[in-house]
Structures are given as structure tokens and as C-alpha cells.
């Protein structure tokens, strides 16, 4: 029996997560009044009604009653109630964008600005994030990627680290990604752009990869980069970071950066100790410009 408290920032995907858990066989209840939470747990854990797993959605709509959760969690810990907390988060800019697109009003913003409501919500939910067993930052996650993470945790029972890393290739001529935490410039590597038969290809193609890696310089760079990341990543985990973007750039974001990003992704994927994805932001932009 699993009892999961699903909570987090408004607009970060809590409702979607509950629907996904329901599809996985969880009995889900959203926005239950806090005074009923203990009774709900008692009924579900006693296996009444044949409920195997349950998920309870709790968020800022509970108002001042939220603080009562501290007492409830303390009691559950003493009584060895097997509960888990899943916290959905996202960057403030992402949340503002989502609110504007949906034309919804933030529950704490009132007639004020959305960003002020978000900051108030962060403060009120801080204790839940600190207690969370799983923190998923949905800022850059597609719906299918969020579903994959939840399946990993609640169906495959795989060990889960709260850190989620995005390896992002890009072109400097299109600007450095605003959300990048680490930026590496690989414009010192051999450039396939100046080889006629390689120019239309990308770092996804073996011929381009072989050209970029040809003289051993790229391999040396990758070894040094791996050493740095192996040093940094455990520190990010200890500090409670839940989202890091490693950006790798070349001139157009089509050849060298894609090749190196794929190599880094392949190396980190072998660890399996954190969420990982790869994106090629500018891989098709040159083609699109030519068509225009």
C-alpha cells in the first residue's frame, strides 16, 4: 500500500500528475479539506474498499489549514504510516507564462501581479518541499517525460534522485540559452560546415561525428568535462538542486555542439542516478532560414 501526497506550485503539473497516477491504478482525491486527511489515510491504509494505492492532492487552496500538515506528518512518522510526498515545481518565469496562456488567476495574486502570488505561494509551501521524497521540476518537461518519471518512481520502483539534468546543444549566433547553468564553447573543434558534403548534415550523422572527433582534441575535452561533471553533480544533489541545464554551443548549433552533447548524454546516461534528457535547440534553424 502506498499513500502519496501530491503537492507543489500552482501551474507546475499537479493535476496532470494525479491523472497519471490514476491511470497507474492509484485511487486519487484532489483538494480534500485538511481536517479530513487523517481519516482518509486511515480508511485507505485499512484497505477498505479494496484500495491498493492512494494519492491525495494538496495545494495552496487549503489556505491557513496547510500548517496543520506539520502535526499530521509528525504523527504519521511516529505511527510509521507509509506516506510519501511528491512535490511538483517549476521556475517562476515558466509558471507566469503558463498562467498567461491559460488566462487563469493565481490563487494568491488576487488583483495583483502573478509573480507576487507565486512568491507568496513558494513561502507557504516551503515546508512541504523540504519534507518531499520526490521533487520534479517540470519547467522543461514534456507531458510524456513527466509520465515517464512518475512511472519510474511509482511503477518500476526505481531509485530516484531529485536532480534532473538537461543536455542542451545550441548555436551562439542564436543566443546563449537563458536557462543554462553551465555553458561550454566547442567552437575550437574542427568545423564540418566548411566541408561541402558535411554542411547539410548534422551531429546526428556518423560522418559529422567522425569529423569532429578526428584529431583527438574532442576526446581530451570530453574526458576533462566528464571529470568536472562527476565532481559537480554530487554537490548539486547534496544542495537540493532539482534542475540543471548543461549547454554546449558551437556557431550554428548543428554540427559540433550536437556531436559533443550526444557524447556527454551517452556518458551520463550510464550513471542512472538522476533524470536526464537531451535537446538540440538550433539543429534545424539554418534549414528553416534558407526556406524563408
Automatic annotation (TrEMBL):
Q: Where is the RapZ C-terminal domain?
A: 164-284
* Gene3D superfamilies linked to this entry: P-loop containing nucleotide triphosphate hydrolases
Keyword entries, A-Z: ATP-binding, GTP-binding, Nucleotide-binding
Superkingdom classification of source: Bacteria
Please name the InterPro entries in this protein's record.
P-loop_NTPase, RapZ-like, RapZ-like_N, RapZ_C
Give residues annotated as binding ATP: 8-15
Residues annotated as signal peptide = none
Can you give the residue ranges of the RapZ-like N-terminal domain? 1-157
Tell whether Phosphoprotein is among the UniProt keywords: no
Q: Could you confirm whether the keyword Nucleotide-binding appears in this record? A: yes
- Identify the residues that bind GTP: 59-62
Pfam families (UniProt xref): PapZ_C, RapZ-like_N
Q: What SUPFAM superfamilies is this protein classified in? A: P-loop containing nucleoside triphosphate hydrolases (SSF52540)
Q: Which HAMAP family match?
A: RapZ_like (MF_00636)
**Could you identify this protein by its name?**
RNase adapter RapZ
Name the gene behind this protein: rapZ
